[in-house]
Amino acid sequence: MSTLFDRHDLAGLTLRNRIVMAPMTRSRAVTTVPDAHTATYYAQRAGAGLIVTEGAQVSEQARGYLFTPGLHTRAQVTGWKQVTTAVHAAGGAVFAQLWHVGRLSHVSLQPCERAPVAPVAKAAAGVQAFGYREDGTPGQMPVSTPRALATGEIPGITADFVAAARNAVEAGFDGVEIHGANGYLFEQFINGGLNTRIDAYGGSIANRLRFVLETVDAVVAAIGRHRVGIRLSPFNRVFDMPAFEGEAETWMALAHELSTRGLAYVHLGNREAILAGGGEDFLRAFRQTCGGTLILAGNYTRDSAEADLDAGLADLVAFGRPFIANPDLVERLRNGWPLAHADGATFYGGSTAGYTDYPAYREEAQPA
């Protein structure tokens, strides 16, 4: 019997099924403030056991894409309150993903057009940013070369995450997910092939994990461990992230450290890359070492999701793109109804088209 639709206790928060809506950037917040359309979008998808929102930048410096929402101003907090109120009214649960992109940005998105920040001053080769062209129009362009953060600046970024977490609680979120995946700032520090610093934040595994763990601890101290999750992507190669010596050892060390902190969950966002890089044995070892609730994401179907739950590889499974065109994805999966296909041209930016206008499934009347 399937466990996909069973309830799950997430650190005291009861989820009505084991399906998570994965965080997905949609670039609809033209002023960086969520609006009524954002609230409609998430409320339509509140059938998920848990929604994790698109990444919300924790500061102006943290931004890497146009039209993404933040969680660092009063207007943004007010905007997100519309979202959480709507999701809760629909019976859902929702965590805010907190985000700093690090080097994956462009000067046109940074305060006073300064260089983005990173552990080292090395640009991400072949990576595009969504920023402003020289004529002021939005467009794709190569990311800018970052500057290396001074040691004394790093605690200030941790403080930005703490402030954003407090803002999330004020806005009515059930918790926050620290974005430590997909080649963004925390992973840039963790990756031993990129991070060649010689201070307390580079070199050894313990040093490369220091920034993310200091931030986890500070956010936990501010809002409580039951309200804090983290997303990671071991063996990630997206956004010019290199393989490095001791890669598996690094991620297992992080799993051990997280096991002592008792977070609401750990979310692994790249199932296929993990299996390719470390194999199922690594995934099982990570899960056993980490303890607690594990969310796994990676191009799931109902059958593959049920198989991973039954095999004990995860407690919850996250679906991403299927939620875009199927606001009622949980019911479609439960009933075996066909899935609609999303229009890739409307994934990012634009109007409500391809955002809030996908209908729920309606069974056609069958002839007698």
UniProtKB/TrEMBL annotation:
**Which CDD domains does the entry link to?**
OYE_like_FMN (cd02933)
Tell me the organism: Luteimonas padinae
Ranges of residues in domain NADH:flavin oxidoreductase/NADH oxidase N-terminal: 5-338
A Pfam family per the record? Oxidored_FMN
Q: What is this protein called?
A: Alkene reductase
